[in-house]
Design a protein that fits this description.
The chain is built from 27 helices and 34 strands. It folds into five domains: 86 residues, 2-Layer Sandwich (Phosphorylase Kinase, domain 1); 207 residues, Transferase(Phosphotransferase), domain 1; 36 residues, no CATH class; 278 residues, D-Maltodextrin-Binding Protein, domain 2 (3-Layer(aba) Sandwich), CATH 3.40.190; 237 residues, Dipeptide-binding Protein, domain 3 (Roll). The chain starts with 7 loop residues before the first strand and ends in a 5-residue tail after the last strand. A hairpin with a 5-residue loop joins strand 3 and strand 4. The chain is of the alpha+beta class and 953 residues long. Helix 7 packs across helix 11, helix 20 packs antiparallel against helix 22 and helix 26 runs antiparallel to helix 27. Helix content is 27%, strand content 16%. A seven-stranded mixed β-sheet has the order 18-19-20-12-21-32-22, with helices on both faces. The chain has a six-stranded antiparallel β-sheet with strand order 1-2-3-4-6-5, with helices on one face.
Length: 953
């Protein structure tokens, strides 16, 4: 209770209330002499002498747990009959706070957190401890963002202080995460594994497997199988789902042998799904790979490989994720489209906690952010008419565990054992997509604006390789993805060999082979053609084409790890040499083919081209997977319009982008579902102009800024909450690159103030710090053209955060063309005496990478304008050396280690500050299937697999 504030428990004074739950209140405590801060957990109990002795004994046992992933218990005692524990203080809150209810967590982040929690649980199990209450609220974030498991045995400890038997026959824990045998009063080590499985399930799809009243949830845990994860999240790899469902087996013996085995299996499954190099042992090729379609490769959803059925997950069964270019990024800075959170949206009710005496409802120690709305899922519920019966059954189950059998619940009709048969679905349909802007060219690598051109190119052309919704690269026209192990890449990354599938043809029946690939790179490198991107092509010294025209080998003058990424997706697909070879290079983008290509190779071909209005594509009978019935759709119409809301209201469109500032409008459309990729490749960041001498020469100022920014508040301000925590430039879709355990800055304005104070920066009468004639006042700018990721709100939050530590930001924004043009590239900074209007000191924008994680263009010394787009004007030769190492390294594990070193530079020198990773939502009609947008390519990543109910969209 708040009235305990100021009281002293042991040697600690209670400074503030951190939170309260069903068993205890948690306070921030400060040592009366050493100023050490700890968490003081005061239990809801008043103990008699005998109970106090029992508490002391059990608390002493818990305090013996010493593990780097377990919150330490420093001390414990009973004061005036009130028991309390002194524990390590985790200043960054819980995983529930980082990922509120309804959030989806990127798979790599899930794996990282599970490994740490499982390591702690395995250690405890070996010490004969059972946690009994594994849930996100009890997973805290340490000072370096490491995961710490807290409240070990607290449920049982509270149980023992309530004058009940300590034998474990009472039901303690949180019902939503509780294993069946624990509900029946027989917890064991496998019960913690089950609870962790529920947590993983929730992180992956945004919902727990079982929802409802306490009674309904208990019955479901005891008797009902969890709903399919892939029905809720069709993009989730089948291997991952299998691991999670095994951990959720009703019979403890059917689960993994240990919680460590569960974590290891989850990591293996995720590696298979996310890393092409890890799908098979070195040198091993799947049976029939040369002739097999890409969907036969591990990592593509198995349900999409064959004939679709009515059981195939549809768009309305998906849930929300929590989720000017630079030469190295292959992509211009993007202003992501993300939807806003609904005004007035109320945080979800806390999880019910069952104590031996009552079903209490705890208040989380961390106030959760508003969650994202969850898309409804078709699932079997428990009839309200059976609640009375269920209540009786649950009481009996808890009391003796004698009525918890599956057979009895089947007998009472709680569970339906019938299996519904699936019927083949009718393929086909005409799918309409709305786009607000037209393409400049529909010839691969001919449109520098990307956007609609890339999504249409994905439908029109067959690339050598393509990426799926997770960002995993698969073979397209190529027979396999090359690797060092298979001999396709030399160990020095200077020789790259691509093997093409035989019998490929263009839409006019002419052969599609290595000669087209050879023609294409030479055309793109020709300045007369005007290619949008020529990165890496200038490194090619020679090319060998095999006599059968099915193999092409590139020889580079220097190692270049991103070379494969130059050939991924339709926007980078080879061109028909027999067709364009008859034209002059400078005439191609001016020819009728520019927006009405007649010779294509993808799943669709152009039927009608009306630039500025629409493009109608129909099935390509010459597509290499036509024998499998692909593409499923008969026709696709790309409609160029800015009236998408009108089309959605009329129901004349199947998919469209989402304006985040009008999310409530989109949510009102009947028959549509909002969705987004599970992962992201983008990051929003603050960049410092190192022409500003104060920012450039005072590291302590940049470090203080990093500590003073409230990242969680920024994410909450993103419309719809479509963003995830990130502190480096490699977002969750980048593998290698993404580092889930990076040492992110800790939000600590007190420490930030102290750092500035200790370095002589004193506050003036206006609250702004200064030292030796230098003033901490800067211009802060961004692109004002779009506000689609809450950037205006972010500016206000950051301005307020930095004002709290004595740094003043003067906000002045600019139109996009000026911002990414003369404003940033000019690099004209304010003087040391303070901000001057119109100058560039600090800027914010969104950037992202494509399939290769090379980020050297962001900060390399040789990319400073006018040579490139290093708009920070930061030059660090040690960092440049690391860039050269990663560019020359193709082994993903070794390359990740180099990126980790690069991240360390970013997070100690702070040339920029990453704020968060945005996600890009879209809206899709219900009754459509296999709509799986990619964080790289966009929504048409797998357009050949789309289909509609009954063959009608």
């Amino acid at each position: 209770m708040a009235d305990r504030l100021g009281q002293q428990f042991g040697n600690y004074r209670l400074v503030s209330l951190l939170g309260q739950g069903g068993y205890a209140e948690v306070y921030l405590g400060q040592h009366v002499r050493f100023k050490q801060q700890t968490a003081i957990k005061v239990l809801h109990a008043y103990l008699s002498g005998q109970e106090a002795e029992r508490f002391q004994h059990e608390a002493e046992t818990i305090a013996t747990l010493a593990h780097p992933s377990i919150v330490r218990v420093f001390d414990f005692d009973v004061q005036d009959g009130v028991p309390f524990l002194v524990m390590d203080y985790a200043p960054n809150g819980s995983l529930r706070r980082r990922s509120p209810r309804g959030s989806m967590v990127p798979l790599p982040q899930v794996v990282s957190s599970v490994k740490q929690v499982a390591d702690a649980l395995q250690y405890a199990h070996e010490q004969k401890f059972i946690h009994r209450d594994v849930k996100p609220e009890n997973m805290l974030l340490g000072r370096h963002q490491e995961v710490l498991l807290s409240d070990f045995g607290l449920a049982a400890l509270a149980h023992s202080t309530s004058s009940l038997s300590a034998s474990g026959q009472g039901t303690v824990g949180t019902i939503a995460y509780m294993a069946p045998e624990q509900i029946e009063g027989h917890p064991r080590a496998a019960s913690d594994q089950y609870s962790l499985g529920v947590v993983v399930y929730e992180w992956l799809c945004g919902e727990r497997p079982f929802e409802g009243s306490v009674t309904e949830v208990m019955v479901k845990h005891l008797s009902m199988p969890p709903p399919s994860l892939r029905e809720r999240v069709p993009m989730l790899p089948a291997e991952v789902e299998q691991v999670v469902l095994r951990a959720l087996a009703k019979d403890p013996k059917a689960r993994f042998a240990s919680v460590a085995d569960f974590a290891e299996a989850l990591e293996r499954a995720s590696q298979v799904a996310l890393s092409p190099t890890m799908r098979l042992p070195s040198g091993q090729t799947p049976v029939g790979m040369a002739a097999a379609p890409p969907s036969s490769v591990v990592g593509v959803l198995a349900s999409q490989a064959g004939t679709p059925t009515e059981a195939t997950p549809s768009a309305d069964q998906a849930a929300f994720p929590q989720l000017a270019g630079s030469p190295g990024s292959l992509q211009p800075p993007a202003d992501q489209v993300t939807p806003p959170r609904q005004p007035g949206e109320v945080a979800p009710a806390p999880d019910p906690v069952v104590s031996p005496t009552s079903a209490a409802t705890p208040v989380p120690a961390d106030v959760p952010l508003h969650p994202k709305p969850v898309i409804p899922v078709h699932k079997k519920g428990v009839s309200r008419t059976t609640v009375g019966l269920l209540t009786g059954l649950v009481v009996l189950v808890i009391a003796g565990g004698v009525l918890g059998s599956l057979s009895l619940l089947v007998h009472f009709g709680v569970i339906d054992t019938r299996i519904s048969a699936t019927t083949p679905a009718v393929r086909g349909g005409s799918w309409t997509l709305d786009y607000p802007a037209d393409a400049a060219s529909l010839i691969p690598n001919g449109d520098s604006t990307a956007g609609p051109a890339r999504v249409m190119d994905q439908a029109l052309y067959l690339p050598l390789f393509y990426g799926d919704s997770q960002g995993v690269i698969h073979p397209g026209a190529a027979a396999e993805v090359p690797s060092v192990q298979k001999g396709g890449i030399s160990s020095g990354a200077k020789t790259w060999t691509f093997h093409l599938r035989p019998h490929l043809v263009w839409s006019d029946g002419q052969p599609y082979d290595a000669r087209d690939v050879d023609y294409t790179w030479k055309l793109w490198l020709n300045p007369k053609f005007g290619a949008a991107n020529t990165l890496g092509l200038n490194l090619i010294t020679s090319v060998d084409v095999s006599a059968d025209y099915l193999t092409i080998t590139f020889h580079l003058k220097q190692p270049f790890a991103p070379f494969l990424a130059l050939w991924v997706d339709g926007g980078s697909a080879p061109l028909p040499a027999h067709h364009f070879g008859r034209m002059a290079p400078q005439a191609i983008l001016k020819s009728p083919d520019n927006l009405n290509p007649q010779i294509t190779s993808g799943p669709f071909r152009m039927r009608e081209s009306v630039p500025g209005d629409h493009y109608t594509l129909v099935r390509n009978p010459g597509y290499y997977r036509a024998g499998e019935g692909l593409p499923y759709l008969d026709k696709v119409v790309f409609h160029i319009t800015d009236a998408d809301l009108k089309d959605l209201q009329a129901g004349t469109v199947d998919t469209a982008g989402v304006n985040p500032n009008q999310l409530q409008v989109y949510q009102r459309f009947v028959g549509y579902t909002l969705t987004a990729p599970l992962t992201s490749s983008d990051y929003e960041a603050l960049y410092f102009n190192f022409h500003n001498t104060v920012l450039a020469s005072h590291l302590e100022v940049r470090q203080a800024m990093a500590m003073a920014i409230d990242h969680q508040a920024l994410i909450a301000a993103v419309p719809g909450g479509f963003a995830t925590r990130l502190c480096t430039d490699h977002a969750s879709a980048m593998h290698p690159g993404y580092e889930p355990l990076a040492f992110c800055p800790i939000f600590d304005p007190v420490a930030a103030n102290k750092q500035l104070e200790d370095n002589g920066w004193a506050k003036g009468q206006d609250g702004v710090r200064a030292r030796g004639g230098q003033r901490l006042e800067f211009e802060y700018s961004t692109s004002a053209t779009f506000d689609n990721i809450g950037r205006a709100s972010a500016e206000v939050i950051i301005q307020r955060n930095l004002r709290a530590i004595g740094i003043k930001l003067d906000i002045q924004n600019y139109p996009r063309d000026k911002f990414f043009g003369p404003f940033l590239s000019g690099g004209k900074a304010s003087p040391p005496t303070g901000a001057v209007a119109g100058r560039y000191d600090i800027a914010e924008w969104d950037n992202g990478l494509l399939y290769d994680p090379d980020d050297s263009s962001v900060l390399s010394c040789d990319q400073i304008p006018p040579k490139g787009q290093n708009f920070t004007f930061y030059c660090n030769h040690a960092l440049d050396a690391l860039y050269q190492q990663e560019l020359a390294t193709v082994d993903p594990g070794v390359r990740q280690q180099i990126f980790n070193q690069i991240h360390k530079v970013y997070l100690t020198d702070f040339p920029f500050i990453v704020l968060y990773s945005p996600l890009s939502p879209s809206i899709v009609r219900k009754g459509t299937h296999n709509y799986q947008p990619s964080p790289f390519e966009g929504e048409t990543a797998n357009i050949w697999e789309w289909w509609c109910d009954h063959g009608k969209c």
